[in-house]
Amino acid sequence: MGTLFDQRPRLDTLATHVRVVMDVAAQLWPDVKVFTPAHYETAARVAEAALKIQGADVLDEQLGGFGVLLTDLISALKLRA
């Protein structure tokens, strides 16, 4: 996963979200041929939880990137002083 200025685009289209939910449903119930609304509701909740976890990971990576930038800025300011 990239940091700060090197982040890949997040899921941003409805079609992508639907595909993710369908993929999760297929992974959760590999033997089911016809999914019910309950299957998709559960899969959507799993996908939503995964996106929240991913969002937290992205935030951690970005904060780490800010730390590096601040360290570099402090070092540059010390050199000028």
Give short descriptive properties of this protein:
rod-shaped; mainly alpha; 81 residues; 0% strand; single chain
Structure described in brief:
The chain has 81 residues and is mainly α. The chain has helices spanning 14-28, 37-80. The chain is built from 2 helices and no strands.
Report on the structure:
The protein is an all-alpha fold and 81 residues long. The protein has one domain. 73% of the residues lie in helices and 0% in strands. It has two helices and no strands. It has helices at 14-28, 37-80. Helix 1 (14-28) crosses helix 2. It is rod-shaped and about 70 Å long. The mean pLDDT is 78.
| Helix-strand sequence | HH
Query: Would you count the extended β strands for me?
Result: 0
Which secondary-structure class do the elements indicate?
Answer: mainly alpha
Number of domains: 1
Rg (C-alpha, Å): 20 Å
Query: Which outline best applies?
Result: rod-shaped
List the helices and strands and how they pair.
Elements: H1 14-28, H2 37-80
